[in-house]
Design brief:
3-stranded antiparallel β-sheet, 9 strands, binds inosinic acid, binds magnesium ion
Length: about 170
């Protein structure tokens, strides 16, 4: 049984709000969005879909693959399997993930991407569990700060299941 934590319309409203902030901050820029597979896909495409047409014309996007989780516990080791294929040197990069939890994944991704020499590097997450942080990581755009509960849906999985739910939920035990 999955209990709804954030209804789909509330997620959509917040995504539109985030898109407004990004549109304002990148009004003069041509950003490159880098999504962390697989959890960021739904969020990133919805976010990009809410940006104004002029910005959608200029922006580029890519994905990289990182994983640290088995079931509901972080292994503490972050494996980058595919690092993306766009050249980020001199670019304004926005890393997008569905959730930041311990911060290990985002910290590792930022470390990797900064080596490419971007002009700027920011982060955008739909969900943040600040109480779980093990590595400090800058969160520039955040949809919702949530308490320490394992969430699923809207791209987030539990062992690859429940990703496709349209809302953010918690698995009742
Ligand atoms: P971190 O490295 O601990 O910050 O976790 C980041 C990654 O762990 C995310 O990209 C998710 O794939 C996964 N994750 C963390 N918390 C959750 C959760 O509550 N539900 C589903 N996946 C999660
Ligand atoms: Mg996962």
């Amino acid at each position: 049984m999955v209990q709804i934590l954030i209804e789909a319309p509330a997620v959509a409203r917040r995504v539109a709000w985030l898109a407004g902030m990004v549109a304002r901050d990148y009004a003069e820029a041509s950003p490159v969005f880098v999504g962390v597979l697989n959890g960021a896909v739904q969020f990133m495409m919805d976010l990009i879909g809410r940006l104004p047409p002029e910005l959608r014309q200029r922006l580029r996007y890519d994905f990289l693959s990182a994983s640290s989780y088995r079931g509901e516990t972080s292994t503490g080791e972050v494996a980058i399997r595919h690092a993306g294929s766009l050249d980020l040197a001199g670019q304004d990069v926005i890393v997008v993930d569905g959730i930041v939890d311990t911060g290990l994944t985002l910290a590792r991704v930022l470390e990797l991407l900064s080596k490419a020499g971007p002009r700027s590097l920011r982060t955008c997450v739909l969900l943040d569990k600040p109480s779980r942080r093990r590595r400090p990581v800058p969160v520039d755009y955040c949809g919702f700060a949530i308490e320490d509960r394992f969430v699923v849906g809207y791209g987030l999985d539990r062992d690859q299941q429940l990703r496709a739910l349209p809302f953010v939920g918690v698995v009742a035990r």
